[in-house]
Amino acid sequence: MKITRRKFLKVSGLAAAVPLAGPRISLAFSGNKGSDRDILISVYQRGAADGLNIIVPYFDGRYYDLRPTLAVDPPGAPNGALDLDGSYGMHPTMTALRDIYDAGDLAVVHAAGSPHPSHSHFDAQDFMERGILEKIGAYTGWLGRYMELTSPFKADSPFRVLGMGTSVQITIRGNVAAIAMYDIDGFDLYAQEPEANAIRTALQALYPGDDLLDVSAQQTFAAVDLLAAANPLQYAPDNGAQYPETEFSRQLMQIGQMIKADVGLEVAAIDFNGWDHHDGELGILPSMLQEFSNALAAFNQDMGDRMNNITLTTTTEFGRRAYENGSVGTDHGHGGVMFAMGKNVNGGQVYVDWPGLQQQQLYEQGDLDVTTDFRLVLGELLDKRGGGTDLNYVFPDYQMPSFLGIFS
Amino acid sequence: MATMTRRRMMESGLAALVSSMSAGAGAGLAQGMNPARLRERSGTPPTPRVLRQPGKPGFQIGHIPMPAGFADNAALKLNLPPAPEIVQLLNRISYGFLQEELDAAEAMGYEAWVEYQLNYEDIDASELEDILNEFLPTLTMSNAELFELEDFGQAYIELKAATLFRQIFSPRQLFERMVEFWGDHFNIYHQDDVTQILKTSDDRDVIRPNALGSFRDMLFASASSAAMVYYLDNFSNTVFGPQENYGRELMELHTLGVDGPYTEEDVIEVARAFTGWTLTDETDDLFTFYAPFHDFEEKVVLGQVIPAGGGIEDGEFVLDLLADHESTANYLAKKLCIRFVADDPPQSIIDKIAQEYLDTGGDIREMMRTLLLSGEFRNNDALKFKRPTDYLMSVIRTLNPNLTDAYFRLIFDFLITLGHLPFQWPTPDGYPDDSVYWTSTNALLNRWNFGIGAADGGLDYFIQVRIFELMDGARRPIEIVDTLAERILHRDLAADDRAVLLEYASDGGSPNQWLPLAEAVRKARGVVALLLSSRYFQNR
To answer: In this predicted structure, what is the pLDDT of residue A23?
Structure first.
């Protein structure tokens, strides 16, 4: 083996710094135009976003009983909710997303989430990202397993699976290696001349194996090469899109730049942190929702017609308790809200089987119940917009009911 | 390190930091950094980067850790030649070490070195502490004094700086590792409003006095630490509006573990027991038990009845109950073994440490002695991937470079990008401790860039490697590789890896050729860069 490896290094021309992972990557990407599946973007609202104040069930008087301080007023009232369908309204800061809803490109799923009973952020995020309810040994993520079953848009692209951040999200972990990227800018290997090439060549040779660390290193070299050639940062936002100046927005914009640079991106995961509002929710939630709404809307604008081939969905580990607590906040709950955005989303609708907020209708000590399993939404996403997949493999402990028709 | 030099480096780094703060930097930190731009720096002193106010949404970094057991799925199996046991010991209980420290440890012997590091009170760290107290005045302030600060960011920066300085410069290396461990365990996010200032006293009064002491004492101190009471919202946990955040994390993360034998009902009961543990501006440490907020009815926690009528004793009863619990012993033992032994430690050593916990009533020093002297630890060839802080600190402690006035800013910037600045993990579970989490492409690239830049002169503006000292007269490629591998890794290289380095250093010529000085230095820098970037040095 060892001699073979040395030989391999020689014959494969590693001295010329060709990526170990395969032959030199062609840059003639065709993207996914004409493909039967979309680029899928998974947004995670970490911390358990308060679905009841994001999509307000203003028709249900109990909502106002349970949240005397926190409730968002009905449409028509000053600073009232933005009406969606006569029963539900968006938080008043989310005008940008409401426009997309009105245009039919945004769908809302309410009382959605995982039936898993955990009220622990860590457990619930973990199970949701793995797409399971029981500890059944599935350590990969639902989107990662989906990717295991797909053939690439572009063979050998190291950017098929991208996690924005300092570490790869569980959602996208699987046997298709994922890249974590905090920022496109600076994603390169730096060494002084005249040694730079020789150092790089030797460094590649020092990670020869198939261990986790070796593979990660080989991926890194391939990614650096490709990114340097494709130069995604050259792409400014199109169609007058204006992203808020925040970390989440920058990372979402960079996903867009990666798409425009045609590097072979197929799925991306991105996090929006900080939704755990045990106190002071009135002070924090509005500005976060505005940022969230404006960032998604800017992405939609920026991508323009590309949204025919892109679908974005959002998840959060659980919703928040139906009634407010003693510190103008909400404790950990159960059912929450998901969004789906794209030209192939049957938008302009709130998909909901309202469980009710009467005491006997609440889950456990007082949570909005889950009537739509998050896996039903994501399963339909993969089936309709992901080109079809083996849903029993992706969601192994779930019998998929009939789809809701969220995607066309 | 020579005393005067080290002192100068500590002082200059701190002085530069303080001046960059007073230049209007205020309370924030840059987000990430660009290695290309760092390399372009020359001449002028560093200016503060674009800074942000803490507490604003959007700054938080990272996400959630792997569940226990994830490591089973994808462990590191590198099959590198094993390191000598004393090298392994130093790798695990320090933030990197010089040849001189290894020599001292070898002269003392394995067990004696363990005792020396365990009895940290006897190791003189006064020089470092004096300097820190001189330059970082907020370290010694009470919570009430901290509240009077004009700029809360001063406390925030100073605590982070002190933490990193101690990791680099303290002779009490094992102790600082324990401080880091318990800081993760009782994690408090540094940007949750007033935790910017309150974490200072939590670190000083809760974590550091007990890091090699009594777990029970630390648990009690944490429960009434203003920073924790604020961070986990217990300040607003009252009989009129119970708030279960602290009660839940107390069991899930601080004591029993998520698989521990408690129910949702227990969470609510524990929350009731801690009603009234709140904050006031009438005491110096800001904590108080406020009886009118307390729920005086009976509670039942883990099957134990807490009779009606109790006050602050209710919470204390719960803390004792949890500290005595077997699940706590097992949970803490496993976490310690994951940190010091392997991502997936053998059950036999976990059981030993847990038993030590139960036998000694939670004496951390005894647990660590058992751990470090155990056969499972000493004969263990599993690798632990260095977390970013481990990596950066070990580059500096191993190379003993000249550090310029600007170096500390560099460390800050890299740690931000690598997602491992102290106290910056937003959720109460603390930074993850498994290799899978930290092994990502982005991380590797930035680590390589740090190691390479430190070695090849690219980051000379911040860190200047003393290449002649490291080379020790070596001029032939074979001497350069072997000398530097010994100085930096203190262990054997696999034959293949040595061949790669020789090929690099020889540049097509003979590994025995005598290189002109300039070329020898250039190649030596390259070899250092490669060693620091290699699998050997990425692990500990």
So the answer is: 30
ipTM metric:
0.86
Restricting to A residues 298-327, those with a Cβ less than 8 Å away from any Cβ of B are: 325-327
pLDDT digits (tens, 9 = 90+) for B7-39: 666 666 666 666 554 433 322 333 334 445 555
- B253: which 2 tokens? 């993360």
Cβ(A329)–Cβ(A102) under 8 Å?
A: no
Give the pLDDT confidence of A23-52 residue by residue, as tens digits. 333 333 445 555 679 999 999 999 999 999
Q: Using a CB-CB distance cutoff of 8 angstroms, which residues of chain A are in contact with residue B237?
A: 326
Instruction: Give residue-wise pLDDT tens across range A167-214.
Output: 788 899 887 878 888 888 878 898 999 999 999 999 999 999 888 889
Of A139, A186, A216, nearest to B35 by CB-CB distance is A186
B20: Cβ contacts below 8 Å, ≥ 6 apart: B46, B47, B48, B409
pTM exceeds cut of 0.90:
no
B189, pLDDT greater than 50: yes
- Domain ranges for chain A: 40-394
Residues recorded for chain B: 540
Whether omega for the bond prior to residue A194 falls within 30 degrees of 0, making it cis, is: yes
Asked if B336 and B178 touch (Cβ cutoff 8 Å), the reply is no
Q: Pick one of 3.40.50, 2.60.40, 3.40.720, 1.10.287 as the CATH number of A40-394.
A: 3.40.720
Are A81 and A92 in contact by the 8 Å Cβ rule? The answer is yes
At residue B145, does pLDDT exceed 70?
yes
Q: Does A187 touch chain B (CB under 8 A)?
A: yes
B41, B269, B416, B442: best to mutate for the A interface, most A CBs within 10 A: B442
Q: Whole-angstrom Cα distance, residue A395 to residue A133?
A: 9
Question: Closest Cα of chain B to A408: distance in Å?
Answer: 32
Residues of chain A in contact with residue B445, where contact means CB-CB under 8 angstroms, are 187-189, 220, 224
Q: DSSP alpha helices (H): ranges in A206-241?
A: 212-230
Q: At residue B55, what are phi and psi to the nearest 5 degrees?
A: 90, -10
**What is the pLDDT, as a whole number, of residue B441?**
57
Run means of pLDDT, 10 residues per run, chain A, 408 residues? 28 28 35 74 97 98 97 97 98 98 98 92 87 75 94 86 85 84 83 94 93 86 88 94 95 96 96 93 96 98 97 98 94 97 98 97 94 98 95 94 97
Q: Is the CB of residue B95 less than 8 Å from the CB of residue B390?
A: yes
Task: List Cβ neighbours of B223 (8 Å cut-off, separation of 6 or more).
Answer: B229, B250, B274, B277, B315, B319
Instruction: For residue B472, give the 3-state DSSP assignment.
Output: coil
C-alpha A387, offset from chain centre:
18
List the beta strands (DSSP E) in A273-324: 310-316
Q: Is B32 in contact with A183 (CB distance < 8 Å)?
A: yes
A203 backbone φψ class: left, alpha, beta (φ>0; ψ -120 to 50): alpha
**Looking at residue B29, what is its pLDDT?**
36
**CB-based contacts of B304-313 (< 8 A; 24+ apart in sequence):** B306/B273, B311/B276, B312/B276, B312/B277
Helices (H), A15-111: 51-54, 61-66, 95-102
Q: Alpha-carbon torsion B82, B87, B91, B96, what sign?
A: negative
Interface of B with A in 346-405 (CB under 8 A): 385
